[in-house]
Amino acid sequence: AVNTRNAPLDQLRELGILVAGTPDMVVKQIKRFYERVGGFDHLLMMDQAGFMSHERTVRSMTLFAREVYPQIKDLPRTTPLRRAASAG
After folding, report:
1. Helix ranges restricted to H, the chain
2. Coil, strand, or helix at residue 74?
3. What's the burial of 30, exposed, middle or buried (CB within 10 Å: 0-12/13-18/19+)?
4. Cα distance between residue 83 and residue 88, in whole Å
5. What pTM did the predictor assign?
6. Is residue 50 left, alpha or beta, with left meaning phi > 0 and alpha meaning psi from -120 to 50?
7. pLDDT tens by residue, 36-75
8. Nearest Cα residue to 41 out of 13, 79, 14
């Protein structure tokens, strides 16, 4: 168990609890998470946290859309277990 309130950001990133950094760092972290969990179908993001201003939040979302998403959008989608079980 990690005390996420007091843990350094680098430790949270290493554990896959937090995804943050430059676009290239974020791509690496998402791909590593994808591999660790065996893929995923949807990626849910919380793009605003703490005291981030509206402007900073929009900048972050825009940066993700322009520089991160194009590099991860073609990751193969996984088949949900329910659908796979009913198909077989």
Report:
1. 9-14, 23-37, 54-63, 69-72, 81-87
2. coil
3. buried
4. 9
5. 0.78
6. left
7. 888 988 888 888 877 889 999 999 999 999 999 999 999 9
8. 79
Task: Return all residues near 78 (Cβ < 8 A) that are at least 6 apart.
Answer: 38, 39, 40, 41
**At which residue do the structure tokens 């979302």 appear?**
61
Q: What does the pLDDT read at residue 84?
A: 56
Q: 32: part of which helix (H) or strand (E)?
A: helix 23-37
Amino acid at 88: G
Alpha-carbon separation of residue 76 from 18, 41, 43, 55, 83 (angstroms): 22, 8, 12, 33, 16
Which structure tokens are listed for 64?
Answer: 């993700």
d(CA 9, CA 63): 20
Contact 29, 13 (CB under 8 A): yes
